[in-house]
Amino acid sequence: MARKASLAKKSLATVCVVFAIYAFFNIFNFPSATSKLDPNLLLDFSDRTSISSSSSYRKNLQIVTSVKIYLYDLPHRFTYGVIRYHSLARGGRPADDVTALNYPGHQHMAEWHLFKDLTRSDSDRSESPVTRVSDPDEADLFYVPFFSSLSLIVNPIRSEPGVEPVYSDEETQVALAEWLEAQEYWKRNNGRDHVIVASDPNALYKVIDRVKNSVLLVSDFGRLKKDQGSLVKDVILPYSHRVNSYKDDVGVGNRGTLLFFMGARYRKEGGKIRNLLFQLLENEEDVVVKHGAQSRESRRAASHGMHISKFCLNPAGDTPSACRLFDSIVSLCVPVIISDDIELPFEDVIDYRKIAIFVESTVALKPGYLVSMLRAISDERILEYQKELKEVKHYFEYGSSTVNEIWRQVAQKLPLIKLMINRDKRLVKTNLNEPDCSCLCSNQTGILASA
Amino acid sequence: MARKASLAKKSLATVCVVFAIYAFFNIFNFPSATSKLDPNLLLDFSDRTSISSSSSYRKNLQIVTSVKIYLYDLPHRFTYGVIRYHSLARGGRPADDVTALNYPGHQHMAEWHLFKDLTRSDSDRSESPVTRVSDPDEADLFYVPFFSSLSLIVNPIRSEPGVEPVYSDEETQVALAEWLEAQEYWKRNNGRDHVIVASDPNALYKVIDRVKNSVLLVSDFGRLKKDQGSLVKDVILPYSHRVNSYKDDVGVGNRGTLLFFMGARYRKEGGKIRNLLFQLLENEEDVVVKHGAQSRESRRAASHGMHISKFCLNPAGDTPSACRLFDSIVSLCVPVIISDDIELPFEDVIDYRKIAIFVESTVALKPGYLVSMLRAISDERILEYQKELKEVKHYFEYGSSTVNEIWRQVAQKLPLIKLMINRDKRLVKTNLNEPDCSCLCSNQTGILASA
Question: Which of B247, B277, B248 is nearest to B262 (CA)?
Answer without folding.
Answer: B277
